[in-house]
Amino acid sequence: MDRKGEGWLVFASIMLVLAGIYNFIWGITALAKDEYLINQFLFANLTFWGWFWLIIGVIAVIAGFAVLNKSQWARWFGIIMASISAIGMFTVIWAYPIWSILIIVLDVMVIYGLTEYGSREAGA
């Protein structure tokens, strides 16, 4: 890798793809196993949330691959998704403290990689 920060962009891309896959699985679970999830969460309309996370998951996977192609929309989408994820983890930190802290750290690393090295001019 001859370009400065290329490793950070690959890391951010992989994290976006993984987040997209996990969100997609979450969406399928919300659609297929609503009787299980309704006991765990207070969302009244799991069909809506299921389709929402399916769509977000697909977009995140596409954005992850687009980051490798230096797409600016993917860079900004990744920054927004990681920011929302980090903020969202604070809502469940009391229930899953280690998991929440791990995800927050990964989100911050993705944000750093995309902001520092994601622009077209970075490392040029």
Structural class: mainly alpha
What's the shape?
A: globular
Helical residues, percent: over 70%
Rg calc: 16 Å
Overall mean pLDDT score?
80
How many β-strand runs?
0
Describe the model.
The protein is mainly alpha-helical and 124 residues long. The chain has one domain. Helix content is 77%, strand content 0%. It has 5 helices and no strands. The chain is globular.
SSE layout and pairings?
Elements: H1 6-32, H2 34-40, H3 46-68, H4 72-89, H5 97-117
Helix pairs in contact: 1-3, 1-5, 3-4, 4-5
Structure described in brief:
With 124 residues, this protein is mostly helical. The protein has helices at 6-32, 34-40, 46-68, 72-89, 97-117. It starts with 5 loop residues before the first helix and ends in a 7-residue tail after the last helix.
What are the salient characteristics of this protein?
124 residues; mainly alpha; 5 helices
